[in-house]
Design brief:
Radius of gyration: 12 Å
Strand order of the largest sheet: 1-2
Structural class: alpha+beta
């Protein structure tokens, strides 16, 4: 176990599961995933990995940096797993 390591497990409606990971500042990544990313993905009904980045891009078109990018990377890993 590493305190800076955040593991992400996504499961779709058919039961397919993917694993992703984020590193550095695991607690903020976890908070972003649960408060913003997962609700946005669920509300949009995202099932294709290609659609996740469209849904998670911020409203001004800037992808951000830091926690948001690490969380989106973890989601991307899990969706393609």
């Amino acid at each position: 176990f590493q305190p800076n390591h955040c593991l992400v497990r996504l499961t779709d409606a058919d039961g397919l599961t993917g694993i992703g990971e984020g590193f550095f500042q695991a607690a903020p990544i976890d908070e972003y995933l649960h408060s913003a990313a997962f609700p946005a993905l669920a509300a949009a009904g995202v099932s294709a990995p290609e659609d996740a980045s469209r849904v998670l891009t911020s409203y001004v078109g800037f992808d951000g940096s830091g926690v948001e990018n690490r969380a989106r990377g973890a989601i991307d890993f899990a969706l393609w797993d």
